Amino acid sequence: MSYETFYQELHEKLKHVVPEPEISIKAEIAWEINKLKAEKNAVILGHNYMEPALFHSIPDHVGDSLGLSRIAAETDKDVIVFCGVKFMAETAKILNPEKTVLLPAKKAGCSLAESITAQDVRDLRKKFPGVPVVTYVNTYADVKAESDICCTSGNAKAVVESLKTDTVIFLPDEYLAGNVARETGKHIIFPTRKKLADDTLLDAQMIGWHGRCEVHEQFTVKDIQDIRAEYPEVAILAHPECSPEVVAASDFADSTQAMIRYVQESQAPQYLLLTECAMGDNIAAENPDKEMLRLCRVRCPHMNEITLEDTLDSLKNDRYVIEVPEDIRVRAAKAVQRMIEIG
Ligand code: 13P
Ligand code: SF4
Description:
This protein is an alpha/beta fold. It contains 16 helices and 13 strands. It has helices at 3-14, 20-39, 52-55, 65-74, 86-95, 111-114, 118-127, 141-145, 156-162, 174-184, 221-230, 244-249, 256-265, 278-286, 308-317, 326-342; strands at 42-47, 61-63, 79-83, 100-102, 133-136, 149-151, 168-171, 188-189, 206-207, 235-238, 252-253, 271-274, 292-293. The strands form 3 sheets. A 5-stranded parallel β-sheet has the order 6-5-7-9-8, sandwiched between helices. A 4-stranded parallel β-sheet has the order 2-1-3-4, sandwiched between helices. The model has no long low-confidence stretch (mean pLDDT 94).
């Protein structure tokens, strides 16, 4: 394909969501990235939260955490460049120890991943012996290594139900745990670090943790009421990292990929996504016939660390290389593979 055709196609897709001068600048960087990607036998994976110009120009695959983990598990390329956050790149490394995995920004964290340590999980295991530990993929490798099985927002219910035990420890997202408890008919208690030694199991069925996504915790039921007052027919889609009250007041809740599919396959007059804002732009670019409302008070500062400029630099200079110590990787891989096998 010539540069002119590449530019025209990108322009056609982005013209309603990205200003013209920005498309010109970004198309040139994306063109260079794509050439380098082929030279280095690299694959670029892009999470659904990447900004529109990046999302629509350089990834070989886009998707949610589960979909991208599956692709990472199967790729035959030498280098994986992960346009997402650190825990996602780590998951790719866990599944591909022999490949080079690059994260284009040094610091692209996640408030959920920061909320829990491997020692916290060991303490919980001591407190609740024999209770299986389900860990959200939004955690670092050492936390995954202490877990029995991982889950994503797209399969959390299926993972919990697969365990066939009355009680599970579900870490670290308190809201996702609440939403899964609601879906599975379980209920939930929260031991805190301080009170851990005194807590008793009682009749708890899900033992949670007080981690939260700094983006999704900001959406409120009042936001939903205000939008519905103005647009009574709007379809409201919430990510399950939103509070159970917000999820209950919405029309649909599931992973980012399932939200995209919902918009593509339904016919509401307007849609409101309660999630990272770039995803609304990405859907609008692909589906110009759909009216996407915006509630963009907050962006994910971690996802926003990943830019086209940094991705070019990452490929040119092999940075930032993701490493996971082998003893941790082997244990974490078991928890991730168990999740992938569940489907
Ligand atoms: P998904 O797995 O639904 O893409 O979510 C990842 C995430 O970080 C949401 O904030
Ligand atoms: Fe983490 Fe929330 Fe950002 Fe997703 S949106 S990466 S959960 S901080």
